[in-house]
Amino acid sequence: QKTENPDTWCLNFDSNGVQSSAKIDLKGATVISWVVNGQEILFLSSKADRTSKKAIRGGIPLVFPQFGKVESPNPVATLPQHGFARISQWKLDEENSSEASEFISVSFSLDSSDLKEQHSDLAESWAYPFTLTYTVCLSAFSLSTTLKVCTTSEKELPITPLLHSYFATEDITQTFISGVKKGPFVDKTKSGAPTQEFSGEKIIISQEVDEIHFDAFGSDKVSLNFGSSVPYKLEFNSIELPDVVVWNPWIEKCIATQDLKDDDYLKFICVELGNIKKPFLLSSNSPLTFGQRISLVKVE
Ligand code: TA6
Fold first, then answer.
1. Whether the predicted interface score ipTM is above 0.95
2. What is the pTM of this model?
3. H or E element at residue 232
4. Is the dihedral of CA 238, 240, 243, 248 positive or negative?
5. CA of 68 to the centre of ligand 1 (A)
6. Which of 133, 152, 153, 293 could pair with 128 as two cysteines, CB 3.0-4.6 Å apart?
């Protein structure tokens, strides 16, 4: 439903004593809040500015068509870091609730004509016909976000999308990620970002972390744990997104980031499901759908 702010939409779920809600900003179709029984799960910077040219700092910015900044001569080299989806104004498509009221969902869209209208320079850099449909689905204890991408382009388009989710932390020193599969990963904090072998241990946050884990889902559930004072953890289900990025800027980079407060590095961790290593090839014959489901699970 609409909120007092015409650029924000709200989903409200209320069933069997569970109340949850999600708020989505039309800028980037960024989910900016997910509350379960009064508990905010996402981090949103108090300095986030939805009117600036930059993405909203916090929530779940949508990275599309490419992760990071790509080197020339790739055609996406002139696109800004993490693409244009997160800095574009999306349109509301439709709102649905299931007959049994087990969930409520809302969809937003962005297409090539919107991009042309809003960012003509970027539309020249990525001059392909496309339609994006992003669906946010809320149920009692889970939030799903899925993106469907279609093109009528004759050319195959490589894309490396990602959901750049920011989660609020109670105590960063107690926060850890578990269940990421052993295998190759890149540590972007090391010079040259060499590919290394990940041992499969917990990922703790006691310094800057900026890691890309390739093909991260195995037999264990990938989970975000908040420490013994928090009675829940988050479990991630991937829908066709094999890679996981873990990011916390720590002190110096946090201070250097304009839209974060100096001590915000203590207040969030990003766990980001994406497809980075082996780009999807989007073609006119095969639309792509991918995303994540995040579930809140009680910890005994
Ligand atoms: O996803 C991790 C990352 O790529 C980091 O390297 C860090 O730069 C972060 O995203 C934030 O990027 P942004 O463009 O939103 O400032």
1. yes
2. 0.96
3. strand 232-239
4. negative
5. 7
6. 153
